[in-house]
Automatic annotation (TrEMBL):
Gene3D superfamilies from the UniProt entry: 6.10.250.2090, Band 7 domain
Pfam family, one: Band_7
Family statement drawn from the similarity comment of this UniProt entry: Belongs to the band 7/mec-2 family.
Keyword terms of this UniProt record: Membrane, Transmembrane, Transmembrane helix
GO CC annotation: plasma membrane
Main location: membrane
Protein name in UniProt: Band 7 domain-containing protein
Transmembrane segments: 39-65
Species of the source: Stichopus japonicus (Sea cucumber)
KW rRNA processing (keyword) present: no
InterPro entries in the cross-refs: Band-7_stomatin-like, Band_7, Band_7/SPFH_dom_sf, Band_7/stomatin-like_CS, Stomatin_HflK_fam
């Protein structure tokens, strides 16, 4: 449906829209200017209070942070430009400045045992330990309410998600690869929070009692099977060696004589009351024929 609008009325509407938009922008600029003026006035008052109460005011304006700490300063609720303060001495204005201290050392926390259903439908309990540190103090304060608690909860969910895609054999044998995968995912997720995940280690994998018994029985059966195979191979090798020795003795009659004499020497070396009278091997050969 077509609606005709008079050109004068259309121009009047455009003029009202431009006037409203200009007034809104001017109002925003006026609010910002008024806010800045208020902040400057409060800063001037704070400086005057500090100068008038010297040297007692030094106890309130001088702050110290350790080598492993950084201080994030807020002035009237706004973050001060620049990096976090520290280590050493820094100054704040009383009444209008607040600061929060962030520890930059590597911290570790235990991931509680998680009940996980593996890819092959086996329920196991897995716990881990995570090592992390703050890489950006300012972001760790401004972008997340509690970066420690958030990192712990994210580690729990990531551990369940990763191990849920693995079979029981992979979980037991590929712990290093699983730990590296969890560390990469956590590090990428916590980067907007200013947290660096340095290492993740899977501590323990607890299996049900019935599954432990079944795996023990399977391992015992496998070891018995390998032992029987090794014994059979030994018997076969011994039979081959005896056959080769018999062939050598059959080819040379003197070899049988030497073997006979070695056996007599070994028997006579033992302390016994049996007296053996050796017969000539040639006589035994005639009886054999």
């Amino acid at each position: 449906m077509f609606t005709y609008t008079h050109p004068v009325r259309l121009h009047f509407r455009r003029w009202k829209w431009e006037l409203w938009r200009h007034g809104r922008s001017c109002g925003a600029e006026d609010d910002g200017t008024a806010n800045n003026i208020c902040i400057m006035a409060l800063m001037a008052i704070s400086y005057m209070v500090v100068f008038c109460t010297l040297p007692f005011s030094l106890c309130f304006i001088i702050k110290v942070v350790q080598e492993y700490e950084r201080a994030v300063i807020f002035r009237m609720g706004r973050l001060l430009p620049g990096p976090a303060k520290g280590p050493g001495v820094f100054f704040i204005l009383p009444c209008i400045d607040t600061f929060r201290t962030v520890d930059l050392r590597t911290v570790s926390f235990d991931v509680p045992p998680q009940e996980i259903l593996s890819k092959d439908s086996v329920t196991i309990a897995v716990d881990a330990v995570v090592y992390s540190r703050v890489s950006n103090p300012t972001i760790s304060i401004t972008n997340v309410e509690n970066y420690k608690r958030s990192t712990e909860l994210l580690a729990q969910t990531t551990l369940r998600n990763i191990l849920g895609t693995k079979s029981l054999g992979e979980i037991l044998s590929d712990r290093e690869q699983i730990s590296h995968s969890i560390q990469s995912i956590l590090d990428e997720a916590t980067d907007p929070w200013g947290v660096k995940v340095e290492r993740v280690e899977v501590k323990d994998v607890r299996l049900p009692v019935q599954l432990q018994r079944a795996m023990a029985a399977e391992a015992e059966a496998s070891r018995e099977a390998r032992a029987k195979v090794i014994a059979a191979e030994g018997e076969r090798n011994a039979s081959r060696a005896l056959k080769e020795a018999a062939d050598v003795i059959a080819e040379s009659p003197s070899a049988l004589q030497l073997r006979y004499l070695q056996t007599l020497s070994a028997i006579s070396a033992e302390k016994n009351s049996t007296i053996i009278f050796p017969l000539p091997i040639e006589m035994m050969a005639q009886w054999t024929k």
